[in-house]
């Protein structure tokens, strides 16, 4: 279903801070001048249609004592779906993107410890027979951009 | 993170329930009071363990179909200054220094660029090229062609 102005209002409003309150949807609904029921049913549809991929708390694994890292693999095109299945099968893989480059698979590992990054990548190398390039951030200069719907 | 935090994380990492009293709903599942749950979430938010509570849009579906990871080869001794400059551009969503892998991967500065067309992204790249000037020894754009997975963090239950 195509997005309308109400959907856009909801998406833009929910990228900020959702209240920790007994009736948080009601608070947002009031700000957006709509009923709580409409907000909830719209939100459900946006999630079902995958316009929103998630709605809830975004945890920072590093602040929780874990770690994450961006990793890349040069996957031969004829093995791409097989390797995707192997890599996505690890629960530590939080995101995975295909990119148009010889380094064509880029995934983010989120693990409960720094050692687990190395261990998971070793397992991925064993299962795929391919070299994993582990590229953890050395410095962060900026993170954050709201996508205006 | 203690056991209760961990339980709260595993109960909420895939999302908040779409019911009028979502925290009450989760508290009931965890067999704790809603007040305790709200307090723990507030604490984790204040400690930065929760970055924010909100929605993650699929930027493709919002019309941002040109999403490039731009990677740049800049001198290591200039990385702080150049990284700060790139990171402050309004169209850069993430900017990081990452390790090189020579010879096949010479790039040490990563900036994510998002646009509604490749032409729009190309204009942004031009701005970065002129900003970096002689300090840039090479760059590439890696456009995403498919989201293979996007679940976010998943802690497993202990």
Please provide a written account of the structure.
Chain A has 149 residues and is of the alpha+beta class. Chain A has 2 domains: 5-48, no CATH class; 67-135, Alpha-Beta Plaits. In chain A, 37% of the residues lie in helices and 25% in strands. In chain A, strands 3-4-2-5 form a 4-stranded antiparallel beta sheet. The longest helix of chain A is centred in the last third of the chain and has 15 residues, at 114-128. The radius of gyration of chain A is 19 Å and the shape is elongated. Chain B folds into 2 domains: 3-46, Arc Repressor Mutant, subunit A; 66-143, Lrp/AsnC effector binding domain/regulation of amino acid metabolism (RAM) domain (Alpha-Beta Plaits), CATH 3.30.70. Chain B has a 4-stranded antiparallel beta sheet. Chain B is of the alpha+beta class. In chain B, helix 2 (22-30) crosses helix 3. Chain B has helices at residues 3-12, 22-30, 34-46, 79-87, 118-132; strands at 50-57, 66-72, 92-97, 109-115, 139-150. The interface between A and B is large, with 73 and 74 residues. Strand 6 (139-143) of chain A pairs antiparallel with strand 3 (92-97) of chain B, so a sheet runs across the interface.
